## 1
Amino acid sequence: FISSNCRDIEILNLNNCYLFTHELLEHYTSAYTISLTPFMAFILEVSHGYTDNGTGIPFINDFIFHVTWFTYVDLLCLENNMQCHICSLAPDNVIFDGVSILFSHKQLCSSIKPLTAISPHLE
């Protein structure tokens, strides 16, 4: 369950149990796309910050962070991010930096094909 009632204040409400700021989730997105920071490394970094600040409240575990971050990414509105000043809103081809869209093997599904795969529609 994801509640959108906190979206206007940039908080993701996960199952009415966990609240995450968009700032934290964007921080991981930035770290991941710049240096391929693994989830556990990021979680440990944030956990050390919690410990250093003496909050007494531990940061969440890796499973919860996985679920939260992938939920956050699913909610992002990326429709207009593929604009081209020549092709307009929907270019025929979009080339991504392979590093920024790389995910763990566990995240793959049967519908995802390697970038070098040739579509049967193009043959």
Note: The first helix runs from residue 22 to 35.
## 2
Amino acid sequence: MTDPTCNIYTSKVKSLKKTSPASLISNRAIALSRTQSIIASDNKVIKIKIELPKIENKIFSKIKGIPSPFKIETSSETIYDTKLQYEIQSLSSSKLYDKISAIDSSGSVWVSNYNNNGDDGEVVYSYSINYENDKFTELGWAGSSFNTKDSTIIAKTQFYQKKIQIYKEDQLSQTIQLIQNPTQINYFDHEKSQTSLLAVTEFNQLKIFDPRQSSNNCCIQKFTPGTSWLYSMAISSNSEYIAVGGSSRTVSVYDTKRWNNSGNWKNCLKYEITNIEFSNKRPSICYVGGLDSEVLAGEWNGSTGVDHFTGLRVDSKWLGLSKLRDEEYIFGYTGSSSIYYIDNCDKLFQGTLSEKSLHNSLASKQEKKQQHQLNNQLKKQQQQQQQEPQIMQVENDNINKESNETTIVGKSRSIEGSPKGDEKHQSKKLKKEE
């Protein structure tokens, strides 16, 4: 019998006394495998190795369907000094998890190779991309992303610099100027493009860039979900959907084939959305995390509604959430230097919406569909009934019109009253008699 609930593990990072704050929209957690992950604090990167035991007896809290976290100890923690001058804002990895990058608040990047040897992966420094020291820049959020087809290509951006810089290893190859402040950046594949496209959120807009075009004409699509800031972005594993969210607390999903809006999940969290991840098993489900300590699962088209008493809450606010690309496995890092692992995270949705209620919701959808069809039939019948007396009225009007045309209006006599054949009119008869 399969376990109907997810497995949640938690541990403390022993090598961290306290965590650095960074930006509100920073993401400083990456899951490299089920046993190995990376976090960042200050200008250091920490590789963590753990072993997930089998939980025999789960303890459930008041939150229905979601067990309490099971405490474990980390197997090993390795600290890497990146030599970056400022605080790390974001971590990213290549599609195959063979490269890792860390970018600080000035826009300088540290890139390393990750050799996964099975039992223990090794992080080997590769190269750095330093910001121009002769130019002043205001410190703020910064992000980077590896090209999905060629991991030697990396794109980076910084909140106040308002530009995208694309590098071939440590050599600058292209610069794209932005109009507004960027908040997220991601490469993704597209079926109609031989190279990867670039998705960037600027203030309240989602823009799609094709780096093959010239820097002035490379923006091929633009979407504006609302008037408020966008803080997070996620791309589905098949690159079919792009999701964005932010201060409006609404997840907006766009189809990359038709380039249109596919659904909106409104007011899904109590606070601003800072993390979004798509489910692999159920493409219609996404996981969202906010500025507080909550992570919630639900359908991004908004059909299941929102129940804030069914999400997972941790000990402090999230500093980063990461999901393995081909598995239902989430790794999270909090401000109290705690780490969380959610195995079979698709069952968070079952905690939010049980199988029985899911069946009921599907049944209610079918009932609504049938009711909608019945309403349409009734409307058609009513329209037909309304049209029938109108047709009869038109026919009666035509008959009356014909009858009016056969009668002579005024003082003249009707055709029916006129004399027939040899019959003489009464006035002529009177004259003869006289």
Note: Helices lie at 347-352, 355-406, 426-433.
## 3
Amino acid sequence: MQQAPTYLNSIKASDEHKNFFFQQFQLACLGQFSYYIESKQEAVVIDPIRDVDDYMYNSQYFYRNLAKSRNANIKYVILTNIHADFIGGHLEIQRKIGAEIVLGNKAKTEYAIKGLEDNGIQIIKFSKDQLQIGEISLRALHTPGHTLESTCFVLVSEGKDYAVFTGDTLFLQEVGRPDLAVADGKISKEDLAGLLYESLRSKIQPLSDEVIVYPGHGAGSSCGKSIGVGTSCTIGNQKKLNYALSDISKEEFVKRLTDIQAPPQYYFFDAKVNQAGPSDVEKVRQQVLKALTYQEVKQLLDDTIIIDSREDLKEGGIEGAINISFSTTFASYVGLLIKPTQKLIVVSSPGKEELTITRLLRIGYENILGYLEGGFEAWKSNGGGVFDTQIVDIKDFTKTDEGRESVYVDVRNVPEFETIGIMENSILLPLPILEQNIDKLPRDKVLHIFCRMGPRAKTAQSILRRHGFQHFKLIQNGGLQEIAKENNLQISPYQ
């Protein structure tokens, strides 16, 4: 089987038992996991992404293709909660093959679901909160906390608990954030954190140590404060490694869990879309995957933002565009920096137009007017505004320009300050809050912008240029540690 590119829904853990088949998928750019479980040609998909079919590659990386290749029928689609960080593919699968949608207690949607308990909206109860799939069953554990409807599912084979799919309740060395279900003001993040504390102790801790934990998210996702690296673990190891399953007091747990940065702005938008029911992604794709000429783009720019997804900017940046490349978690940073309803036009590297748009649709960004045919070269050859990105070799990054003072701007996130350290006297402005704190930066000095690897510094420069800043120094690849090593600088602890 061909190797999936990192931006696809790539295959991770796989397990072929005598009475079931299991497949884990990872969407690295969102730090998201989804699952396919099959027994006797009956299958269930847990937390699918929106593009449930393989649009760009002839492969088995997507759920329906996998089921077809194994002569199986997807019977159920499970959401462990109403997700906020991506648009789910549950309705896509239901539209195509009629699978029933399953959600936990307290779930409220505008479409029919198979609920685990009666919540008053077209509910079909089933016996003892279990789903039968061939020769196995999935047992529901109601675990409110991340959201009120959050539910974990235990895979039971031959009467024994084999694995638990924990959604956003339990991650590796972390748990789900408790501030995504507070929009209506009826419950606080402290209330939800308290519920999560009790859920973990009443539902998760009693599971046997050998039960495998398959979480809904991994490192890189903002659905947890500091999610550990990895794709799976065991309950026993999580009891040793995860503070949330230790003997921590409820008061300390709530305090720790609620001391968290605000979620990305698009999370509340996506949660509402998933609750109301996402539109047909194939129809949306046909509408927005539209090639535009330079002249058409120019006519649309008054209230539109160009997203430049190119990675290499040595040839120049597009004046007025925001550069968010595939070298970073593209969809997450679009969601952090740009409102979901904003009109967008895509400029990408040749051949990556459809991929860029697909990744925008995964997080519900549908107000896309099209993409510039010919990309950067078409923009440049037609006289579009281009600026020198002032990218220098790493050995020249710390050199000052004659007649102009310099300042260093660190746009990494706080956890990176804490784990790696900082450059003395640098201005610390994490990229998600940069635009709100522009007044902290001097306009008459050269801004030496850096991050951990380089891409976020380019995004920061493109944002600052939209606000009139002119003087920069950046490096193409590399960040604080490489800069410090090359220029004999000391990295200091963050306090």
Note: The first strand starts at residue 10 and ends at 16.
